[in-house]
């Protein structure tokens, strides 16, 4: 049973029940047991969810330090170039200014890459945590005779009787207390891809430059 399918089916069932003017019956023919789950609360309050947040905060601080260090180096080089500009010819000064601009552009690209790495690391960790809580939420759904399960944040009003969030957090904390957050090396992957493209282009160019092999006499007969 897929818990996401249950949540999606819940919205459909409520729409049919509301506009069709029918009463949705439960499994035993009685009142339907509609359950609610606040997934955001699970992320924020479960021990594993807290571990994800703490690791992401640490990774974010490391990235900020890295970027600030590079930015400080570029600014220092710019100040030094400004102080020494009289020592360079116009051509040399223009070359050095262009080099600094390229460094600044590289910093912007690196910032985008690091941001993407953090976002992917967070998404991967949350997906892993969701895999842990999905069977537990399905167990609670079955135990409480649920007919539909809805995301609580999408509901205007609900009673606490149908909320399985706290029970899920308690069950999840017994199963797992930490999820490893791994930052992917998107920069390394990008560089490897660029090298592969360059090698392929060089190989293609070399193949075009090779002279065509002569066909021995008599083979065309």
From TrEMBL:
GO molecular function, one term: unfolded protein binding
Keyword Coiled coil set for record: yes
Protein origin, superkingdom: Bacteria
Keywords assigned by UniProt, alphabetized: Coiled coil, Signal
Keyword Glycoprotein: no
One of the GO biological process terms: protein stabilization
Entry-linked Pfam families: OmpH
GO cellular component, one term: cytosol
Coiled-coil positions: 71-110
Family: Belongs to the Skp family.
Protein name: OmpH family outer membrane protein
Species of provenance: Parvularcula maris
């Amino acid at each position: 049973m897929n818990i996401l399918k249950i949540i999606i089916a819940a919205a459909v069932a409520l729409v049919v029940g509301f506009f069709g003017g029918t009463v949705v019956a439960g499994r035993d023919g009685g009142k339907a047991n509609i359950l609610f789950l606040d997934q955001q609360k699970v992320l924020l309050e479960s021990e594993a969810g807290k571990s994800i947040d703490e690791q992401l905060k640490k990774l974010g601080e490391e990235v900020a330090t890295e970027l600030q260090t590079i930015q400080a180096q570029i600014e220092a080089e710019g100040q030094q170039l400004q102080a020494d500009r009289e020592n360079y010819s116009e051509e040399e000064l223009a070359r050095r200014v262009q080099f600094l601009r390229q460094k600044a552009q590289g910093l912007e690209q690196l910032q985008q890459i690091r941001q993407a790495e953090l976002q992917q690391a967070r998404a991967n960790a949350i997906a892993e945590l969701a895999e842990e809580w999905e069977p537990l939420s399905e167990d609670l759904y079955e135990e409480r005779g649920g007919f539909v399960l809805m995301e609580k944040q999408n509901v205007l009003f609900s009673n606490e009787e149908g909320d399985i969030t706290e029970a899920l957090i308690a069950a999840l904390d017994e199963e797992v207390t930490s999820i490893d957050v791994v930052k992917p090396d998107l920069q390394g992957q990008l560089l490897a891809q660029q090298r592969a493209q360059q090698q392929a282009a060089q190989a293609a160019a070399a193949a075009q430059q090779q002279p065509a092999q002569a066909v021995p006499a008599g083979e065309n007969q």
